[in-house]
Amino acid sequence: MTVHNKHQVWTNWSGALTCAPSAHIAAQSEEEICSAIKSAANNGRGPVRAPGTGHSFTPIVITDGTMINIDGHQGLVDADVSTSQARVKAGTKICDLGAPLLEAGLALANQGDINRQSIAGAISTGTHGTGLTLGSVSSQAAGLRIATADGGVISCSADENADVFNAGRVSLGTLGIITEFVLQCVPAYALRETGGRMAVADVFAQMDSLVKDNRHFEFFWFPFADDVLVKFLNTTDEPARPPRDGGGRMEQFAMVAACEISRFAPFMRGPLQRFLTNNAGARYMGADEFSQKAKVRHAYQAFPSDRDVRFNEMEFSVPLENGPDCAQELAEHMRKRGGNFIFPMEYRTIKGDDIWLSPFQGRDSVSISIHQYAKQDYRRLFDGAEAIFRNYGGRPHWGKLHTLTARELAPLYPHWDDFQEVRRRLDPKGLFLTPYLARLFGEDGS
């Protein structure tokens, strides 16, 4: 275990959040994680947080106390192809998990389009991909080990400490530091990607079939454009082909250029959005017409997209039936009152689950996310969007920007009080509760 007591500055991925904890600790094992928690508690150096890779846009890891980095605690511990389960250390990055799982004959059932997060960070915040028959990454956790405030470790699953399991799969690090997961995987598979441009009106007219007839469907909509960019992933028996090196670099360059031009010439945001849409792909005519151009990849290579242009993000999940209306009202807001923005809206579907603080608890959902270039202020765009999301019963992604506190959050989650009971029992002194999290969970006295 390595301890640094200097006030080193930590910054999240977008650059919007910084903090200078009084202690930085690099823990290489579960034992070192427990020791670091004990040390922080005994020396009054709370709150204690584990930062992951900083891909959250909310300040859930911001602390002036102790930051425990578990990057060194990573790797696939073992895998059982007969049960399709794998034991994984919590610091493992999703991008480093696909290849060893494939070697073991397994794969994640689903994942998001960014793969740089730690598996612990992704699960703890309810990160997800798309697919109406598939749940979030959190729903693939079949067991957890959590280092708690007293320096001990508690194991949980559906059959052992079930209340901790129900709370722990999406817990924002407030129960303790998760050290290990049992992941319920599936046999290894390949995915075939097709897509292109579709007229906005056609997408909404065909929404039910687009969602139900594909394992994975999502679209990206630059609101000033008349077309949207659609993406489909479906399983295939075709052999996987290796991805091209440098794929997507030209698109990333074009996106940066558009963002920079729009910063200084806001009146260009409409033409730039239409340009980016029209040059992103041919008009989609169906899978057969694109059979020669389709990408076929191992699943872990098919899910992620290049996301090197820095941004801040807001995302809410609304009931499935509310998705289309919410998206169209949101696009209208973005055009008329959203100010200067370039990034598209992203639209995905997720199967409901039974996790107490999951945004998808008890309902199939549509998640809609909007982004703002990291060098631009996001408040005008996000404030109006949040009001629309809330009118449609939206629940916020825990790692993405929102302004809700306990008073607004509690009615959205039927098991809010159950979660609070478990959290207070495992962390009675609030060792893992930062000022932001105290406000989120109503422990700040307000």
Low-confidence stretches are 287-291
**CATH top level assignment of the largest domain:** Alpha Beta
Strand order of the largest sheet: 17-14-16-15-19-20-18-21
**Tally of alpha and pi helices:** 14
Q: What is the fold named in CATH at topology level of the largest domain?
A: Vanillyl-alcohol Oxidase, Chain A, domain 3
Q: Rounded to an integer, what's the Rg over CA atoms?
A: 21 Å
The geometry reads as globular
Second rung of CATH, namely the architecture of the largest domain: 3-Layer(aba) Sandwich
Helix residue percentage: 25-40%
Beta-strand share of residues: 15-25%
What is the number of E strands? Answer: 21
> In CATH, what is the homologous superfamily of the largest domain?
FAD-linked oxidases, C-terminal domain
- The tally of domains stands at 3
Mean pLDDT: 94
* Termini separation: 38 Å
The biggest beta sheet is recorded as: 8 strands, antiparallel
In terms of structural class, how would the helical and strand content be classed?
A: alpha+beta
Question: What do you see in this structure?
Answer:
There is one protein chain. By secondary structure, the protein is α+β, with helices and mostly antiparallel strands. It folds into 3 domains: 2-69, 2-Layer Sandwich (Uridine Diphospho-n-acetylenolpyruvylglucosamine Reductase, domain 2), CATH 3.30.43; 76-188, Uridine Diphospho-n-acetylenolpyruvylglucosamine Reductase, domain 3 (2-Layer Sandwich), CATH 3.30.465.10; 190-396, FAD-linked oxidases, C-terminal domain (Vanillyl-alcohol Oxidase, Chain A, domain 3), CATH 3.40.462.10. 28% of the residues lie in helices and 24% in strands. It is built from 14 helices and 21 strands. It has helices spanning 30-42, 98-103, 119-124, 162-168, 200-205, 207-212, 249-264, 269-278, 299-302, 323-337, 379-391, 406-409, 416-426, 435-440; strands at 2-4, 10-11, 18-19, 23-26, 48-49, 66-69, 76-80, 85-89, 106-107, 141-147, 153-157, 177-184, 186-187, 190-199, 216-221, 227-236, 295-298, 311-319, 345-350, 365-373, 395-396. An 8-stranded antiparallel beta sheet has the order 17-14-16-15-19-20-18-21, with helices on both faces. A 5-stranded antiparallel beta sheet has the order 7-8-12-10-11. A 4-stranded mixed beta sheet has the order 1-4-6-5, with helices on one face. Helix 4 packs across helix 13 (416-426) and helix 10 (323-337) runs antiparallel to helix 11. The longest helix has 16 residues, at 249-264. It is globular and about 60 Å long. The two termini are 38 Å apart.
